[in-house]
Amino acid sequence: MTASTIERPTETARPNRLECTVRELAAAVKSVLPALTGRSPLQILSHIKFSYDGDAVLIEATDLECFVTRRVEGMAITPGAFTVDGKMLAAILDKLPGDRSIILDGTAKTVKVACGTSKQALSAFPADEFPARLAPAVDEVGGTVPGPILERIISDVVFAVAPDSAANGRLKGVYLHAPNGKLRAVATDTYKAMCSETQVEFPDIKAIIPTRFASIVAAMCGKSDVELSGDGKTMTAVFDDGLTFSCKLICEQYPNYERIFDSVEGLTQITLNREELLDTLSRAILLADQSLYKVVLRPDNLIMRLTSQYGAQSAEEELLLQDVKGEPVAIAFNGRILNSVLSKLAGRDVHFRIDSPLRAIVIIPSEAADGVTQRSICCPMEVA
């Protein structure tokens, strides 16, 4: 047998080992799971990546639009990287005692999980096949925002974002900018619009953030500050616990929503108690046409009457008017849309600023809450 025909045994790649407590690993894995998607044909997008980063472990997850990384110190890891199914690993960790030590040995094909007498083997992909993180922003603009404030303004407006089926792509996200040096969030689907402005000083970033990313960031906001930055193509949110979210922005120009707000002079202004209106509206919606949910609001002296009808069924509700300025007019709305707007507004009373029953109607709370100023628009329906 010649030397050229001798079969040499292949070396088994040395596994990359991660060791820590179950509780530590479970918390770190859970923090990156929001970026995972279950709808992609690319199986690797259901995986998370573990890698050695100096004196820390770097955990990554992505759906190619949203990227999340978590840098965790204090875990023992050997230099190298491996991937593993994120949701499966999280499910396993959920069934193990939190104070026990756990070891992950990862190769390009398999990740072995060992915790006491419990052992599992999970499939893996080569770490170099995992999608690369977004490149660092160039000429980025940003600043620091208190976590509770950022969560508040995003949560205020995200309900008004246009659905994924909408033809107008620029409406499928939350618009963040600071036209007067104050950070503001805006969203609209053309039927309703919501604007929530803070007193936080911020450079004007002009970023349309995909809905999913906005919702994830809002959910992750705690009591600490968040570093927010963008360059027109990407946006990054950095939290103080080593967690970083980044995403690709919707690179289109947002509609001039201010023009609509400014065009409403408020020739008629009706003031109602917000909680009482929500209460009566919820009952009127029950007997409205289930395709239009039409509810009519008709002022009558110091009473506001809400009526709805569907065939032989009808409903009539009354509540006190807090104030009326100008000529009282009857207005009609899709009750479900009006309910969604009122549910996000703060304050005891709300003002309806009306120029015509068929033009956009501005609804604003009577007072700002927690330093946040809100404005909304609800498009009416024909009263008749």
The number of domains is 3
How many H/I helices?
Answer: 7
Radius of gyration: 27 Å
Principal-axes geometry comes out as elongated
The share of residues in extended strands comes to 35-45%
Low-pLDDT residue spans: 1-12
Q: Kindly state the percentage of residues in helix.
A: 10-25%
Under CATH at level 1, the class of the largest domain stands as: Alpha Beta
Mean pLDDT: 91
Taking the alpha carbons of the first and last residues, their distance comes to 98 Å
Computed structural class: alpha+beta
Strand order of the largest sheet: 14-11-12-13-25-24-23-18-21-20-19-22
Q: Give the biggest beta sheet.
A: 12 strands, antiparallel
The CATH superfamily of the largest domain is known as: DNA Polymerase III, subunit A, domain 2
Based on the coordinates given, report the CATH architecture of the largest domain.
Roll
Total strands: 25
- CATH fold-level name of the largest domain: DNA Polymerase III, Chain A, domain 2
Describe the structure.
The chain contains 7 helices and 25 strands. The chain is of the alpha+beta class. The protein has 3 domains: 13-129, DNA Polymerase III, subunit A, domain 2 (DNA Polymerase III, Chain A, domain 2); 141-255, Roll (DNA Polymerase III, Chain A, domain 2); 264-378, DNA Polymerase III, subunit A, domain 2 (DNA Polymerase III, Chain A, domain 2, Roll), CATH 3.10.150. It has a 12-stranded antiparallel β-sheet. It has an 8-stranded antiparallel β-sheet with strand order 6-2-3-4-17-16-15-10. Strands 5-1-7-8-9 form a 5-stranded antiparallel β-sheet. Helix 1 (22-32) packs antiparallel against helix 2, helix 3 packs antiparallel against helix 4 and helix 6 runs antiparallel to helix 7 (335-344). The chain starts with 15 loop residues before the first strand and ends in a 6-residue tail after the last strand.
